[in-house]
């Protein structure tokens, strides 16, 4: 590729990114697609298109482009997370969970991904897995309120009510039982 053509493509990419950041997603897609004619396997360009389609709620098209990105870079946690966020948005928790777990294996210091895995475990009613998962990651992130709430819910859902009440009391204060009602003070 000639230097002039490379500079033109770089300029187009910067313009497309600027349009995307301004919320002009359709115009950005058009510029990204022009770049794709010269660089059909460019992961940043494919990801830019996928992100634009995601913002336009065109989830099937976004998924298609995220998958193309992952064919180029299957171990890139940012790309894996992007596709998992799409699955979260479309409430496909099983697919999201698989990708989030893969991402966490690749890069272990992603607290936001840990939160999303906990959320998926609760949404898929995988309460036993959620208990173990939360116990493990609350050691690393002891003040994470999302994990604490997922842990509480999973304890109650698995019949570990005493532990759940102790955790609830620790988080909220005093628990008072009155005529089959529970009041948290």
Give an overview in words.
- Helix 8 (127-140) packs antiparallel against helix 9.
- This protein starts with a helix and ends with a strand.
- The protein has ten helices and two strands.
- A hairpin with a 2-residue loop joins strand 1 and strand 2.
- A two-stranded antiparallel sheet has the order 1-2.
- By secondary structure, the protein is mostly helical.
- It is elongated and about 70 Å long.
- Uncertain residue segments: none
C-alpha termini separation: 69 Å
Question: How much of the residues is beta strand, in percent?
Answer: under 5%
Q: In DSSP terms, counting alpha (H) and pi (I) runs of 4 or more, how many helices? A: 10
Task: Write down the oligomeric state.
Answer: single chain
The mean pLDDT is 92
Which strand order spans the largest sheet, edge to edge or round the barrel? 1-2
Give a short account of the largest sheet: 2 strands, antiparallel
**Strand pairing plus helix content: what structural class?**
mainly alpha
Shape: elongated
* Helix percent band: over 70%
**Helix and strand string, N-terminal first?**
HHHHHHHHHHEE
The number of strands is 2
Based on CA atoms alone, the radius of gyration comes out at 22 Å
């Amino acid at each position: 590729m000639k230097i002039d053509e490379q500079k033109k493509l770089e300029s187009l990419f910067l313009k497309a990114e600027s349009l995307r950041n301004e919320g002009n997603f359709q115009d950005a897609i058009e510029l990204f697609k022009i770049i794709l004619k010269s660089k059909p396997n460019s992961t940043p360009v494919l990801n830019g298109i996928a992100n634009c389609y995601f913002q336009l709620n065109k989830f099937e098209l976004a998924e298609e482009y995220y998958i193309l990105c992952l064919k180029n870079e299957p171990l890139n946690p940012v790309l894996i997370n992007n596709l998992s966020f799409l699955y979260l948005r479309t409430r496909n928790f099983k697919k999201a969970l698989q990708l989030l777990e893969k991402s966490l294996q690749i890069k272990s210091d992603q607290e936001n991904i840990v939160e999303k895995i906990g959320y998926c475990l609760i949404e898929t009613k995988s309460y036993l897995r959620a208990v173990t998962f939360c116990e493990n990651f609350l050691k690393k992130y002891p003040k994470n309120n999302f994990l604490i709430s997922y842990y509480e819910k999973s304890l109650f859902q698995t019949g570990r009510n005493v532990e759940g009440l102790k955790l609830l009391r620790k988080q909220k204060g005093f628990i008072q039982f009155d005529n089959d009602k529970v009041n948290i003070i």
